[in-house]
Automatic annotation (TrEMBL):
The keyword Isomerase does not apply. This is Eukaryotic translation initiation factor 3 subunit A. Residues 316-513 form the PCI domain. Pfam families: eIF3a_PCI_TPR-like, PCI. Gene3D superfamilies: 1.25.40.860, UVR domain. It comes from the Eukaryota. Keywords: Coiled coil, Cytoplasm, Initiation factor, Protein biosynthesis, RNA-binding. Residues 882-913, 969-985 have a biased composition (Low complexity). It is found in: Cytoplasm. SMART domains: PINT (SM00088). The lineage of its organism: Eukaryota, Viridiplantae, Streptophyta, Embryophyta, Tracheophyta.
Length: 985
């Protein structure tokens, strides 16, 4: 690697090598200079070097060298002078293009030179052998030898430039221009493969731009200028794709445009959108997507009508006719009725994507997406006024196909209209984005739709029809084509038809009746023909002899069948749920295991990569350190040798010899020696300069002394010349002024004759204008007075209305307040009554609770006395129980305490109590005590009575039966006494 003190030296060396025919060495010299780190500071010479370097690379077709050199040059001048990089790249592309064109022209000239009458005279044995072996013609061989290498190099040039400029925000215009050149190259030479690669390269550049957002010179897509360049490139890509008939790549370009606009949230210009929809119509028509094609035409019509004011009425008529015919060309049936679930999901996603692309909605909400359909489109065309622009033939065709019911005459009336429509069309004005419209392209699709409509209407009228009759009714196709249309319509459940070729008839039936037959083969129906026969016979029997009584439901005959079915159904659902859950758990475990294994593998791979990177980094650092040490040692050795050579040269010039021999010299000693020599030389130079400055001072002083009188004489002479010139100029000015004054005086005398007429005309004009002004002022004052009077009346009416409204509002407000006060009083009164009623109820409940507590306490004491065996006097108040029947009945009915049922009172106690109406209650244990009276006789046995619902079969502690009822125990006179036995509890 040669080193140069200045870049200019390398350029001179390269030119010398080029002159002697060593271009490879010259290229290597410039390449070493460009890639060297010593010359990273940009200079104007670098641009000259790069231009020469690019010329050598193009001459020798060295694309790799050109790419390396451009990358290094971009590093050098990116932050200093990026325009220089732009000039170099433009020069590179121009040279490559010129050489490719030159090679192509040479190949054409060679082919023309070989195009002679007598081919055998000019053919050599070598050419004959090549033609027999390779099978190529002369032009193919010349292209392969001359043109193809240069075209490959030109293509490589475009790829290199795009790769260098892909992340450069300062050269976005050059990037777009390069992409346009590459598109035109593919278009001109029909390079479809290279065009696909180019589109993929540009697509990857944008993807990487969004992926790596931390780059320093990354273009900002939100900037209008950057967005314009990117969109312009995508639209050019779309145009070239359609011209090359690469429809798949064109559709991907459409997706790229939509994705770019969604990314930056900004709509393109209307002119670009017109191109967008125009290309969409071509793409959808080629793909036979008639519905999407119609929607794209509709959007294009709306855009042209709204933004393109230069379109003529004829252009709008043709575009509107295309919109309506494209909508009518769409099949009238839905493709997704018979599709599977997976196909339905795919179709739904496709429709949503197409809706976004056609509607061009940047901010799309999933719940607001509409469904694209033929009926909706036709309704929109009618409501949006498209029908007002179409031709009369297209209107008549629309009414026949969509609104008329003519099963026998539909085809005969549609055919002349289609013939007229096929002749319509032509070129549009230059203001339109669509250059030409030909309505004849819709004729085959319209014939198919007309056939479908005819079949649909005939199926509503006839049940059977001969094949010959149907063939005569459809003049567009023969029966084989009609049969294909029938199969497609039946497949999508549009009509139900069965063709019987044996009888030569067509059977129109109900969709439900023929659905099973249309969905399967005849052999499938032969499997269950006996069951079908039995079902039909059963239906016939029921129609002939209907059953008198209605058969009960299965659920009435088998009540438990519904429950069994429900349980079995639930069990099966639970089993299905368990199986699905187990499958999901198993899949989840497998996924987790795979994820863990993948994580482990990635970790191990990452560790290995890190170890490898560390090893490579260590080796690279060691090699770098060693190289730096070698370079330092080499540089020190070269500097020492250079200092030694300088010392020897100076010593030879002055006749002196070096003090130290060359073998013992070191860098330090040479540097000290050179420093001493430099100090001595500087001192000598200063002395020489001082001596020379004195000499120059004396010389300059002598020159000025000699030149002083000459300068003075020249000044005097110049002063005299200028004074003479001033006098001549002044005299000339005076003469010109006198001439102008004489002319002005003559003009004044000439105009004084019309002064009087001028004053009269002026006075007349002023009087007319004054009268007009007075009239207009009086009219204005009168008009103002009328307006003021009208406004005064309006204010008066408004003031009265406001007063009336305010008074009415106050009255209504007062009534509302009185009503609210009355409601508040009523509410307070009700609250007070409710509080009093609750207080009374609480008091009654408290008394009842106290009475129950006393009864419980008395019963407790009685039980304790019984347990102790000691008599106890039961208190008679406040828990006194009256013995009379009339007094015990309320207590028995109203008290919640346990009633003492089944007890009897002795007759003696009742007789000797001294009360006429009854006696007090006497406990059983006191009835046997001696009290000076005879013991009461035993009560007579009561007649057997039916036990009540609570006390039947119960016994007391001693085994005696108990009863909760009161019964008569004794009769004294005409009154009966009632008693109660002890409580059974």
């Amino acid at each position: 690697m040669a080193t140069f003190a200045k870049p200019e030296n390398a350029l001179k060396r390269a030119e010398e090598l080029i002159n002697v025919g060593q271009k490879q060495d010259a290229l290597q010299v410039l390449h070493d200079l460009i890639t060297s780190r010593r010359y990273r500071a940009w200079q104007k010479t670098h641009e000259k070097i790069m231009l020469k370097y690019i010329e050598l690379c193009v001459d020798m077709r060295r694309g790799r060298f050109a790419k390396d050199g451009l990358i290094q040059y971009r590093i050098i001048c990116q932050q200093v002078n990026v325009n220089s990089l732009e000039e170099v790249i433009k020069h590179f592309m121009d040279l490559s293009t010129k050489r490719a064109e030159l090679a192509r022209s040479q190949a054409q000239a060679l082919e023309e030179a070989l195009d002679v009458d007598d081919l055998e005279a000019d053919k050599r044995p070598e050419d004959l052998m090549l033609s027999y072996v390779s099978g190529e013609k002369g032009k193919e061989r010349s292209d392969r030898e001359l043109v193809t290498p240069w075209f490959k190099f030109l293509w490589e040039t475009y790829r290199t430039v795009l790769e260098i400029l892909r992340n450069n925000s300062k050269l976005m215009a050059l990037y777009a221009d390069t992409a346009h050149r590459a598109f035109q190259f593919c278009k001109q030479y029909k390079r479809t493969t290279e065009f696909r690669r180019l589109c993929e390269i540009i697509r990857n550049h944008l993807a990487n731009l969004n992926k790596y957002r931390d780059q320093r010179d990354r273009p900002d897509l939100s900037a209008p200028e950057s967005l314009h360049f990117y969109l312009d490139t995508r639209f050019e890509q779309l145009k070239v794709a359609t011209e090359l008939e690469l429809w798949q790549e064109a559709f991907r370009s459409v997706e790229d445009i939509y994705g770019l606009t969604c990314m930056v949230k900004k709509m393109p210009k209307s002119s670009l959108m017109a191109v967008y929809y125009a290309k969409l119509t071509e793409i959808f028509w080629i793909s036979s997507s008639h519905l999407y094609h119609a929607y794209a035409w509709f959007k294009l019509f709306q855009l042209q009508k709204s933004f393109n004011k230069n379109l003529s009425q004829k252009d709008l008529q043709l575009i509107a006719s295309s919109v309506l015919l494209s909508a009518l060309s769409a099949p009238p049936y839905d493709h997704i009725k018979t599709a599977s679930h997976l196909e339905l999901e795919h179709e739904k996603e496709r429709n949503m994507m197409m809706y976004n692309l056609i509607g061009f909605n940047i901010d799309v909400k999933p719940e607001s997406r509409e469904v694209l359909s033929r009926s909706t489109l036709l309704t929109d065309l009618v409501s949006k006024g498209v029908m007002t622009y179409v031709t009369q033939e297209v209107k008549d065709l629309y009414h026949l196909l969509e609104n008329e019911f003519l099963p026998l005459d539909l085809a005969s009336k549609v055919q002349p209209l289609l013939i007229k429509i096929s002749k319509l069309g032509g070129k549009l004005s230059s203001a339109s984005s669509v250059p030409e419209v030909q309505l004849s392209q819709y004729i085959p699709a319209l014939e198919k739709v007309a056939t479908l409509r005819l079949l649909q209407q005939v199926s509503h009228v006839y049940q059977t029809m001969k094949v010959e009759t149907l063939t005569k009714m459809v003049p567009f196709f023969d029966f084989s084509a009609v049969e294909r249309i029938l199969v497609d319509a039946v497949k999508h459940n549009f009509i139900a038809i069965k063709v019987d070729h044996l009888k030569g008839a067509i059977i129109f039936g109900d969709m439900q009746q023929l659905l099973s037959y249309l969905q399967g083969f005849e052999s499938d129906h032969l499997q269950n023909h006996l069951s079908v026969l039995a079902t039909n016979l059963n239906k016939s029997r029921l129609m002939i002899n209907p059953s008198p009584s209605r058969v009960s439901k299965l659920s009435d005959m088998l009540p438990s069948l519904a429950e069994i079915i429900d349980k079995e159904h639930k069990r099966l659902l639970a089993r299905k749920t368990i199986i699905e859950k187990r499958k999901e758990d198993q899949e989840r475990q497998l996924i987790e295991m795979e994820r863990e294994e993948e994580t482990k593998r990635l970790k191990q791979q990452k560790k290995a990569e890190e170890a490898e990177q560390m090893r490579l980094a260590t080796e690279f650092q060691e090699r770098k350190n060693q190289r730096i040490l070698r370079e330092i040692e080499e540089r020190e050795r070269e500097e020492a040798l250079a200092l030694l050579n300088d010392a020897e040269k100076r010593g030879k010039k002055k006749g002196k010899k070096p003090i130290i021999e060359g073998e013992k010299l070191t860098k330090q000693s040479l540097m000290e020696l050179a420093l001493q020599e430099q100090v001595r030389e500087r001192q000598e130079m200063e002395k020489k300069i001082q001596k020379q400055s004195k000499t120059m001072d004396h010389l300059e002083r002598a020159k000025r002394e000699e030149a002083a009188p000459l300068i003075e004489a020249a000044f005097e002479r110049r002063l005299a010349e200028e004074k003479l010139h001033h006098e001549r100029q002044q005299q000339l000015e005076v003469e010109l002024s006198r001439g102008r004054h004489d002319g002005d005086v003559k003009e004044k005398y000439r105009l004084q004759r019309v002064m009087e007429h001028k004053m009269q005309f002026q006075e007349r004009v002023i009087n007319c204008r004054r009268a007009e002004y007075d009239r207009m002022r009086s009219e204005r004052e009168e008009r103002l007075s009328q307006v003021l009077q009208a406004r005064r009346g309006e204010r008066e009416i408004k003031r009265k209305m406001l007063y009336y409204v305010r008074t009415e509002e106050e009255r209504l407000k007062k009534l509302q307040e009185e009503e609210e006060a009355r409601k508040r009083e009523e509410l307070e009164r009700r609250k007070k009554e409710e509080a009093e009623r609750r207080a009374k109820l609480d008091e009654i409940a408290e008394k009842q609770r106290q009475r129950e507590q006393e009864l419980e306490e008395r019963e407790r004491l009685r039980k304790e006395a019984i347990l102790r065996g000691t008599p106890i006097d039961m208190p008679t108040r406040p828990s006194e129980i009256p013995a009379a029947a009339g007094s015990t009945a309320p207590a028995a009915a109203g008290s919640t305490a346990p009633a003492a049922a089944g007890s009897t009172a002795p007759a003696a106690a009742a007789a000797g109590s001294g009360s006429s109406g009854g006696g007090k209650y006497v406990p059983r244990f006191r009835r046997s005590e001696p009290s000076g009276q005879a013991p009461a006789p035993a009560p007579a046995p009561a007649p057997p009575a039916e036990s009540d619902r609570w006390g039947a079969g119960k016994k007391d502690d001693r085994g005696a039966p108990t009863s909760d009822k009161w019964r008569p125990s004794a009769v004294s006179g005409s009154k009966s006494t009632w008693s109660s036995s002890r409580f059974s509890r």
